[in-house]
């Protein structure tokens, strides 16, 4: 029986990350095990418990945007546009002959314009109480504005909105885009996520929650998922953009097809504000939901790009869930956390990590988990965490996990495209 759904493929990617300012540079950084962590330069962090992060390197928005335009955008929207530009050009989606009414933008961020909010309130508090706010304050701040700017830039008049589910935001955006296309509501969608919160309140707020690593003596190796001495995540910034497109539409215009979207799943832990369910119930559900949506068995997956933030509880809960879902096949999987290199991009994590999963399928190469020093007895030694170095293997399908504060879970599966 033929499926009522249209098939959806990946035809373009773009990335702006702490280890590479384009998708090819990002992938090179991943397979070479490059750490993006270093001491913070965005502000004076000398009095903070954590004084390092995974910042972008050598990024100047005015290299990509006119100065007047850049000033109207918060940094999270600037990086969104840069990554989206790369993806659109990579997919040749800027072709004027395409029906722009059928091309949409679904963009994610977990927090949005935090820098703008800090700047405006700092200026207000330094004054005499007279309100002198920038007329672009609200348009720079709101989460949906990145999607709006991308659509205006290319006259994409299809579905246009933002998704927000903390650190699952970008994966939720990808799943929404996938769903809209396979239901026939769009032919192509620019999707992904961006985040820019390496700020005083970003670092200070996560420090107050005791969520961040405080390994100031060795920031390069501070993000160490699955290591016995992991002590929290490293905050990152950047953006990942992906063009999803209906298969026949892509074929008709001769687009390059990277991979096919097999399915996606969502769930809630319904357990705790920030902690994962100790038995991984929400994570079990979300991976099963993704597999069921894809019509796949656990044995069909070769690689899992895990959420793997390097927190004591989170890493354990995710691996418990993987072993319950995948059973004996868990020992045949490659598992890796690319957050060990990029840090945690919060709402944008699902964007850049989906690109890592897609390129693992394209290149039959699994990026590593770096910074592993000491074995944690909590983890089964038979599991392959792809430690230290990238590993060559056939990757028929890759699953990408993202989980957010509030108990939000989202998983998406990419597989090799076959006629």
SSE order and pairing:
Layout: E1 8-16, H1 23-31, E2 38-39, E3 52-53, H2 67-70, H3 75-91, E4 103-108, H4 114-126, H5 137-141, H6 145-154, E5 160-163, H7 169-182, E6 188-195, H8 200-208, E7 238-246, H9 247-252, E8 259-268, H10 281-294, E9 303-305, H11 312-326, E10 334-336, H12 339-342, H13 349-363, E11 365-366, E12 391-392, E13 397-404, E14 408-415
Parallel strand pairs: 4-5, 4-6, 9-10, 9-13
Antiparallel strand pairs: 1-7, 1-8, 2-3, 6-7, 8-14, 11-12, 13-14
Helix pairs in contact: 3-6, 7-13, 10-11
Care to describe what's here?
With 419 residues, the chain is an alpha/beta fold. 32% of the residues lie in helices and 18% in strands. The protein is built from 13 helices and 14 strands. It has helices spanning 23-31, 67-70, 75-91, 114-126, 137-141, 145-154, 169-182, 200-208, 247-252, 281-294, 312-326, 339-342, 349-363, and strands at residues 8-16, 38-39, 52-53, 103-108, 160-163, 188-195, 238-246, 259-268, 303-305, 334-336, 365-366, 391-392, 397-404, 408-415. It has a ten-stranded mixed beta sheet with strand order 5-4-6-7-1-8-14-13-9-10, sandwiched between helices. A two-stranded antiparallel sheet has the order 2-3. Helix 3 packs parallel to helix 6 (145-154). The longest helix has 17 residues, at 75-91.
């Amino acid at each position: 029986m033929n499926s009522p759904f249209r098939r959806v493929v990946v035809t373009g990617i773009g990335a702006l990350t702490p280890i590479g300012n384009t998708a090819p540079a990002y992938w090179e950084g991943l397979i070479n095990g490059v750490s993006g962590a270093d001491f913070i330069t965005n502000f004076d962090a000398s009095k903070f418990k954590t004084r390092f992060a995974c910042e972008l390197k050598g990024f100047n928005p005015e290299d990509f945007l006119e100065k007047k335009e850049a000033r109207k955008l918060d940094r999270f929207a600037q990086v969104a546009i840069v990554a989206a530009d790369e993806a659109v050009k990579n997919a040749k989606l800027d072709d004027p002959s395409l029906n722009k009414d059928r091309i949409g933008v679904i963009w994610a961020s977990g927090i949005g314009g935090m820098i703008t909010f800090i700047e405006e309130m700092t200026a207000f508090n330094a004054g005499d109480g007279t309100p002198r706010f920038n007329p672009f304050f609200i348009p720079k701040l709101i989460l949906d504005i990145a999607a709006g700017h991308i659509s205006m830039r290319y006259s994409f008049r299809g579905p246009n909105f933002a998704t927000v589910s903390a650190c699952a935001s970008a994966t939720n955006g990808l799943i929404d885009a996938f769903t809209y296309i396979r239901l026939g509501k769009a032919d192509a969608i620019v999707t992904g996520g961006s985040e820019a919160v390496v700020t005083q309140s970003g670092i200070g707020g996560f420090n107050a929650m005791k969520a961040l690593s405080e390994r100031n003596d060795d920031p390069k190796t501070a993000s160490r998922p699955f290591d016995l001495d992991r002590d929290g995540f490293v905050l990152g910034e950047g953006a990942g953009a992906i063009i999803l497109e209906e298969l026949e539409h892509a074929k008709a215009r001769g687009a390059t097809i990277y991979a096919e979207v097999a399915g996606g799943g969502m769930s809630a832990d319904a357990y705790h504000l920030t902690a994962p369910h100790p038995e991984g119930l929400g994570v079990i559900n979300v991976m099963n939901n993704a597999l069921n949506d894809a019509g796949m068995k656990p044995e069909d997956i070769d690689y899992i790009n895990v959420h793997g933030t390097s927190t004591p509880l989170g890493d354990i809960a995710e691996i418990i869930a993987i072993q319950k879902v995948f059973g004996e096949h868990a020992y045949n999987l490659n598992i890796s956390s690319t957050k060990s290199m990029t840090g945690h991009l919060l709402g944008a994590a699902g964007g850049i990590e989906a690109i890592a999963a897609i390129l693992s399928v394209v290149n039959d190469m699994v990026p590593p988990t770096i910074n592993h020093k000491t074995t944690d007895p909590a983890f089964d030694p038979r599991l392959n965490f792809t430690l230290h170095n990238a590993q060559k293997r056939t990757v028929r399908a890759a699953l990408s996990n993202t989980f957010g504060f509030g108990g939000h879970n989202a998983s998406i599966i990419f597989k090799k495209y076959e006629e």
